[in-house]
Description:
The structure holds 2 protein chains of 2 kinds. By secondary structure, chain A is an alpha/beta fold. Chain A has a single domain (34-47, 75-212), classed as Rossmann fold, CATH 3.40.50. Chain A contains 6 helices and 9 strands; from the N terminus they run βββαββαβαααβαββ. In chain A, the strands form 2 sheets. In chain A, strands 6-7-8-3-9 form a 5-stranded parallel β-sheet, sandwiched between helices. A 4-stranded antiparallel β-sheet of chain A has the order 2-1-4-5, covered by helices on one side. In chain A, α6 (173-190) links the parallel β7 and β8. Chain B has 2 domains: 2-43 and 262-390, no CATH class; 95-223, no CATH class. Chain B has helices at residues 2-5, 11-42, 62-67, 75-82, 149-163, 170-173, 209-219, 240-248, 257-299, 301-310, 314-353, 362-390; strands at 53-58, 87-92, 94-95, 99-106, 111-117, 120-121, 142-148, 178-184, 187-199, 205-206, 229-234, 251-253. In chain B, the strands form 3 sheets. Chain B has a 6-stranded mixed β-sheet. Chain B has a 4-stranded antiparallel β-sheet with strand order 2-11-1-12, with helices on one face. In chain B, strands 3-6 form a two-stranded antiparallel sheet. The two termini of chain B are 18 Å apart. The chains are: A alpha/beta, B alpha+beta. At the A-B interface, α2 and α3 of A face α10 of B.
Amino acid sequence: MQKIELINTLPAVFAGADVHSEVWHCHVTLERGRRYLVTAESGTGKSSMCSYIYGHRRDYSGTIAFDGADVRGLTIEQWCEVRRRHIAYLPQEMRLFAELTVLENIALKNSLTGHKTRPEVEQMLDMLGIADKANSLVGKLSIGQQQRVAVVRTLCQPCDFFLLDEPVSHLDEHNNRMVAQLVMEEAQRQGAGIIATSVGNHLAMDVDHILKL
Amino acid sequence: MWRLLSKHISKVQLAGFALANLVGLAIVILAVQFYLDVRPVFNDEESFISKDYLVITRSVTTAGAMLGDSNSFSDADIAALEQQSWCRSVGRFENSDFGISATLGLGSGGRSMRSQFFFESIPDEFIDVDGAAWDFDPAHPVVPVIVSRDYLSLYNLGFATTRGMPQISEGQAGMIPIQFTFDGAGRHETMQGRIVGFSTRLNTVIVPLTFMRWANERYGSGQPSAPVRLIVEVSKPGDMAIEQYMDEHHYDVAGDKMAASKANYFLVVIIGIVITVGIIISALAFFVLMLSIYLLLQKNARKLHDLLLLGFSPAEVSRPYEVLVVAVNVVVLVLAIVLMLVARSFYMDMVHAFGVSGSSVLAAVAAGFVLMAIITVGNIIAIRRRVAALW
C-alpha cells in the first residue's frame, strides 16, 4: 500500500456543522515512508479518523481510499489482510487483554504475523523498561506500562503505515523518546509511513507534515 | 486465544445441553434400533408369504349358500381390488379341476396312507421358494408341492402318535415318496410328487402354476373356473382402509394376517411417536446450547471485537467455539450410542425368545450421526453468523 487518501471525508456527527480542519472536508494524501502528526483538540474526531482508516467504523461521508481504491469495497478477508500486513494500529484505548500476560498479549498478534522472534520482543520490552513485567497480567500493570506493551504489540507486524492514536499520552519524556526511537527504527526498516495523533503530548520524532484536525 | 475465550464458558450450561441432547439422541437411536430389532417378530420373514400379502375369500353365508350364490371372484371384483391405493398386485388361486388322490409311503414296512387330495396354484411371484425346485416338466413328471405347516403338525401330533406311525420332520418330509393319482377326462395316471416346502401362512396345498395349467388341460373339464381365493400384495399392511374395504365387500382375510399387520402398524406409530419425542428433546437441547453460546459470545463480545481488530478473521475467532461444540457433540454421540447398546442388551433376550436374531446396529448409529451432524452444522452456522455480526 503506497498511499491513503481522505477525500472530502467527514464524520457523520459533524454533518452540517461548520468545520475548520486540514483533514475533514479536504483531500489529504498520506504517503508510505513519510511521517505525519495529526494534532487535535479533544472531541474533534481524531480517534474516529483512525477507526475509519482501520475499517472498524463507517459512520462518515466522503471517501477513504487505499492506493485509489475506496475502502468501502473491501471484503472482510481484505480487511484482515490490511490489519495483518499493511496498517499497524495502536488504538488510544490500547485494547489489551487484561487477563493475559504481557507476553501472551504480544504473542497473539505475533502468532498472526510471525514478524518478531521472542528475543526481539524481549529486547523491545527491555528498551521500554518493562522486561520484568513480561509474565505479569496486563490487568495488573499501570496505564503507562500498558501503553508500552501496546506499542510493542503494534510493532509486531509488517506494515506500510503505523497508525498510532495518542501513542505516548501516558508516558514520560524518557519513555516517549524510547517509543519514538523504536517506532522510527521499525518504520525505516520497512519503509513504512507513520501517522501519529496527539492532543498535546506529541511523539518525540521529526515529522514531514503536521495536520491540524 | 482459547485461554482468552474460554473465560466465560459455563460448565453447568454445557453439561445441561450435553445431558439433554444425550437423552434426546439416545431415545431416537434406541427407538430406531428397537424398531429394527423387533419388526421381524411381527413380520414373519421365514414364511414363504410375508406379511405384505393377504389371502382373501368371500364370506360364505348360509342364505347365500342356499340360494346358490357363487363365492368366486369375478373379473370386476379383481379389477376393483387392483384399483385400491393400498393394493400392489392381486394373484388368483387356480384350483384343480379333476380328481386327485395321494399315496404316502411311510417307513420301510410298506405302510402307506392314501387320501383324496386337492391342489391350488398361485403365480410364482407370490411364492418365495427356490426357482430350481419349483418347476414342472411333463417330460420328467415330478410334482413339487408346498404344504401348509398345519398339515404336518396335524399328522405328527394327531395321527402318528395315536396310530404308532413315525413322526416326521420338515427335512424328512421332502424325502417321503408321494404318488399322486389323477382321474379325469377319461385318464387315470400316476405321478411322483415331492414336498419342497412348508408354509405357515398358506393353508392349502400349492403346486406350480405350470403344472396346474398343464394338468387342468389334460385331466380337467376344460371349463375355466373363476377363482375363489385371491392373494393380495398390500403396500400398507395394517391400513384401516384395507379392513374397511374387506368388511364392505364381505371378504374374509385368512389367518391372523390383519391382526399381525395391525400390531405392526401400531408398532410403527408408537416408534414414530417415540422418535418424535426424542427429536423434540434434541431440538430443545440444541436451543439450550445455542442460548448458552450466544450468552458466551455476548460476554466475550468486546474480546472478540478486539481480536478482529488485531487482524483475526471471523472464522478464526469462531473456531475455538466450533471446536468446543464439535467436541461436546462427539462425546454426546458416543455416549448415546453406548447407552443405546446397553439398553439393547436388556431387551434383546426378549427378542431372542421370539426366535428373532435382531438386526445390525449400523442403521441406528447412522441415524445418530445424521442427527448429530445436523445439530453440529446448525450450531456452527449460528456461531459464525453471531461472530460475523460483530464485524
